[in-house]
């Protein structure tokens, strides 16, 4: 028996053997390695930021990914990127959970029978290349690609004599492109510029959530809605069947069913034409409009409201009309989009707010007819390559049609429904591990670069195709006739940075630092002339003898889950829906009147059946959906993908017929079925403020006529204390008194701040069972509240620790775990806390969270943890810290540089990611700081629950209600 050294004995008895036994992929390193030669570009203990492009949806926002000691730990928006200007949506924030997803495909898999077994890369290359060399015909179906990756895909197909390359996106804006083809001869999705737009008319286009470029549009919308003395905020009217988050932000909401939308759009257009309010003549369209307006299904419209909307839209300086939803197809959706395009032409928006010179990249995604032709062409001789797309989940009948191919090869990072059908599954890099580029629109060329080294034995998708072609004896050639060895060479050559010259290398490095290249300004758009002579509309079908159980389906896209590709991410599953505040699942919305006729009660298990399929889900009764409709969220109901997605909710894509695709007026039958329905998990019990004035608002006319008096607004500073009514002594803050303002007028309810808080502060995902028991851990919540006096308008209240100067939580803690620090923060000392929860009982804002259980971070999610934030354990209270780690970083940086902190240098995670610019953070002891000016002088300022005299450091700025005329 060999001798055991003292070091080895201590190492084993210290528990390392247990760690190795339970975590076999982590290799044993039995010696210390001094960083005399540190890894390239990595400074131990320091942050390194990599500029890249977000690929969580086709919007193409710019990102900065923070890397610490070789680990990517946080995604932020790139402030220089023209699409998002430094902000990110919840999906962009969650990109790190895609990188570190425990359910990622980590090995090459080969399906034998119904099971996948591990194989080597060489075995896969030999099998696939030999099939290709033997005459296998190539068909390639990919998620949307542009630039160099798109060139590689086309070159790969061409190398084997094929042109069957399609870019598949479930949200392909089919109806919008068809309408623009018919009207302008341009089958594209134009850029909708809301910058400076003073009236937005949305026909079921949720442009603050999933439609178009949501982050850019949210910023532009919030800038237009922001309160400025002497200016009128942007107005917005929403017409659609469901009260979405976007609709809840509007000034007008006209609830109409999907079938009625083109009729209402035509009626609005007819009002504008008949009253002479159009800037361009549309008189030739009167007969065509009459075809729709004389239909027997014409809804009973509020003519006064219609006139108000028409007048506001036509009198605006920069109006714009939007047609949605992005997945809509069929005659009803196309006619709606056609009327919307005519509305834009009528008010002169073409070439102004609607710019066809900057078409969106989604204009190149496959249409339904192209997909049908593609699937119909598949046969036994075909090798079907599917790259990061999941048609087996999102398109009815696609799985059976793909099975006709002789071999299916899936390239992706998740074992989703399509991957489970494939013969070979080739694991690809996450977009945070790979090179690439993406161009969301002309003039914006975003680069992608690895933000960290590979976690697993994966490869870039394009590198796999290049290697496969080489193995089959048909190396790929670029447009210049060269044969690049990988995508990086292809990319550098395409951008003109090849050759290794100093100047080219400097240009390449500059592009990497910036995150790409883009033109800030392009020539103004062209006011295209429409082809009005050939415009015609189909008459709406006459109403038949409808049965009580007949409804119109309204599937809607979740701001968190998009089309379902992100459903395995715990942050997004646990982030509440903005209006219902439901987490972990989806449900069916029915109007109470419709439910009453069918004997359906809230919480019942309900089945929806269409010609394509059926689903079951619990029902929620609400007037937020049209009486003739049933609404259900997309993105849930996976049978694969991963632990967080599998079996959660129901798949609404199953109801959409792939041949006569709907989504926009899909006839369905609704019925109550036996069985126990999974109870929807709602983390806000009521939308009613119960006369507590939590979320205050003020009419615009009141602000203009006389500034309202601020009652009992006490600053969290010594001057805010009064001996006659203050129990506790004042605090003296020698250097800083950190504070925040929250502009409720800007908040749209998207929840990006809450997800960013999860990412920054190591907030654990606890799962549906614990959330249902009230054990949620979110430090920041954005609950929706009904606007008083309105039956449909929503407002949102971002709520985290208020860092009170007279904090009720501090004096009740028996061990001084909750204490007031020297800079005004209400600090929580975790290793003092003994879990009495007295502080939580005494907190009137209920923003403290208690760890009831020890939660395990599934490997490798632990690699994403922020090393500057303590990971808490059972029995400890936690809460918002104003991102104190960021405060300290800024202070250390200023000290090293021998200067004072600058205003705006400290930016908490919630403020950094917010697309709407809701949060302002700074030092109240700095008289020139923006937070000081807003806190001391903004006429809208108030403190939440001010009657308790807690002197919060968070000042809310009231919502401003547009005077509805």
From TrEMBL:
Protein name: 4Fe-4S dicluster domain-containing protein
Record-linked Pfam families: Fer4_11, Molybdop_Fe4S4, Molybdopterin, Molydop_binding
Record bears the keyword Cytoplasm: no
Limits of the 4Fe-4S ferredoxin-type domain: 738-769
Coiled coil ranges: none
Record keywords, A-Z: Iron, Iron-sulfur, Metal-binding
Domain 4Fe-4S Mo/W bis-MGD-type: 47-103
């Amino acid at each position: 028996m060999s001798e055991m050294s003292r070091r080895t004995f201590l190492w084993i008895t210290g528990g390392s053997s247990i760690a190795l036994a339970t975590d076999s992929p982590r290799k044993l390193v039995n010696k210390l390695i001094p960083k005399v030669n540190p890894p390239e570009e990595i400074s131990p203990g320091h942050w390194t930021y990599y500029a890249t492009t977000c690929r969580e949806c086709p919007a193409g926002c710019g990102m900065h990914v923070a890397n610490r000691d070789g680990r990517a730990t946080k995604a932020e928006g790139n402030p220089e990127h023209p699409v998002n200007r430094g902000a990110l949506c919840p999906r962009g924030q969650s990109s790190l959970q895609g990188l570190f997803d425990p359910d990622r495909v980590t090995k090459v898999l080969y399906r034998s029978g119904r099971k996948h077994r591990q194989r080597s890369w060489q075995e896969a290359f030999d099998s696939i290349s030999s099939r290709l060399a033997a005459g296998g015909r190539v068909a390639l179906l990919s998620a949307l690609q542009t630039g160099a990756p798109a060139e590689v895909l086309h070159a790969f197909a061409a190398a084997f004599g094929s042109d069957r390359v399609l870019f598949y996106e479930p949200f392909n804006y089919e109806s919008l492109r068809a309408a623009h083809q018919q009207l302008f001869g341009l089958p594209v999705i134009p850029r909708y510029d809301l910058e400076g737009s003073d009236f937005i008319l949305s026909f079921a286009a949720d442009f603050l959530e999933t439609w178009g470029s949501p982050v850019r549009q949210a910023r532009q919308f919030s800038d237009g809605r922001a309160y400025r003395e002497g200016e009128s905020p942007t107005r917005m009217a929403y017409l659609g069947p469901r009260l979405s988050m976007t609709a809840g932000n509007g000034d007008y909401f006209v609830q109409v069913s999907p079938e009625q939308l083109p009729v209402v759009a035509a009626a609005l257009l007819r009002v504008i034409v008949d009253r002479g309010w159009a800037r361009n003549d549309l008189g030739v369209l009167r007969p065509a409009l009459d075809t729709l307006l004389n239909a027997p299904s014409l809804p009973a419209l509020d003519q006064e409201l219609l006139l108000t909307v028409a007048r506001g839209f036509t009198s605006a300086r920069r109006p714009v009309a939007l047609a949605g939803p992005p997945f809509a197809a069929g005659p009803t959706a196309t006619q709606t989009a056609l009327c919307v395009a005519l509305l834009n032409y009528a008010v002169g928006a073409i070439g102004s707010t609607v710019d066809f010179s900057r078409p969106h990249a989604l204009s190149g995604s496959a249409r339904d007819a192209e997909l049908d032709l593609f699937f119909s062409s598949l046969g036994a001789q075909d090798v079907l390559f599917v790259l990061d797309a999941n048609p087996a989940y999102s398109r009815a009948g696609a799985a059976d049609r793909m099975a006709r191919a002789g071999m299916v090869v899936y390239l992706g990072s998740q074992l989703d429904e399509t991957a489970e059908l494939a013969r070979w599954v080739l694991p690809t890099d996450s977009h945070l591990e790979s090179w690439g580029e993406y161009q969301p629109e002309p003039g914006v060329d975003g680069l992608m670069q690895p933000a960290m080294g590979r976690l697993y034995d994966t490869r870039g998708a394009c590198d796999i195709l290049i290697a496969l072609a080489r193995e089959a004896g048909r190396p790929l050639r670029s447009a210049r006739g060269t044969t690049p060895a990988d995508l990086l060479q292809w990319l550098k050559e395409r951008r003109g940075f090849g050759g290794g010259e100093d100047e080219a290398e400097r240009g390449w490095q500059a592009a990497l630092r910036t995150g790409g290249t883009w033109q800030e300004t392009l020539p103004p758009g062209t006011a295209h002339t429409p082809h009005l002579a050939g415009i015609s509309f189909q008459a709406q079908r006459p109403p038949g003898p409808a049965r009580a159980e007949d409804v119109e389906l309204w599937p809607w896209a979740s701001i968190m889950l998009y089309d379902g590709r992100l459903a395995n991410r715990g942050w997004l599953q646990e982030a509440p829906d903005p209006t219902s505040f439901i987490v972990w699942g989806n449900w069916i919305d029915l109007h109470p009147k419709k439910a009453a006729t069918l004997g359906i009660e809230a919480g019942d298990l309900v089945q929806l059946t269409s010609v394509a399929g059926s689903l079951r889900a619990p029902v929620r009764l609400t007037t937020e959906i049209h009486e003739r409709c049933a609404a259900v969220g997309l993105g849930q109901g996976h049978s694969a993908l991963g632990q967080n997605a599998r079996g959660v909710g129901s798949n609404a894509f199953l109801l959409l017929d792939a041949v006569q695709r709907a989504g926009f007026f899909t006839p369905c039958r609704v019925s109550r079925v036996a069985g126990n329905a999974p109870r929807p998990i709602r983390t806000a019990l009521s939308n009613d403020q119960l006369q507590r004035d939590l979320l205050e608002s003020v009419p615009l006319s009141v602000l203009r006529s006389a500034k309202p008096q601020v009652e009992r607004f006490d600053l969290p500073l010594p001057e805010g204390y009064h001996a006659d009514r203050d129990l506790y002594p004042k605090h003296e803050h020698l250097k800083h008194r950190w504070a925040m303002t929250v502009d409720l007028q800007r908040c749209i309810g998207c929840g990006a701040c809450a997800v960013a808080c999860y990412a920054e502060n190591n907030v654990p995902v606890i799962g549906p069972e614990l959330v249902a028991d009230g054990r949620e851990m979110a430090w920041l919540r954005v609950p929706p509240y009904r606007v008083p006096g309105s039956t449909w308008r929503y407002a949102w209240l971002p709520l985290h620790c208020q860092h009170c100067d007279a904090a009720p939580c501090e004096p009740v803690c028996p061990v001084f775990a909750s204490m007031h620090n020297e800079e005004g923060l209400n600090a929580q000392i975790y290793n003092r806390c003994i879990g009495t929860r007295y502080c939580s009982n005494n907190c009137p804002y209920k923003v403290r969270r208690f760890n009831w259980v020890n939660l395990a971070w599934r490997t490798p999610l632990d690699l994403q943890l922020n090393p500057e934030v303590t990971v808490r354990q059972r029995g400890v209270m936690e809460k918002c810290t104003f991102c104190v780690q960021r405060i300290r970083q800024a202070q250390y940086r200023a000290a090293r540089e021998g200067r004072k902190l600058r205003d705006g240098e400290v930016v908490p995670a919630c403020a950094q990611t917010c697309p709407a610019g809701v949060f302002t953070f700074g030092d109240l002891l700095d008289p020139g700081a923006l937070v000081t000016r807003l806190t001391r002088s903004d006429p809208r300022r108030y403190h939440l629950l001010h009657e308790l005299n807690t002197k919060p450091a968070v000042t809310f700025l009231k919502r401003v209600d547009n005077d509805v005329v």
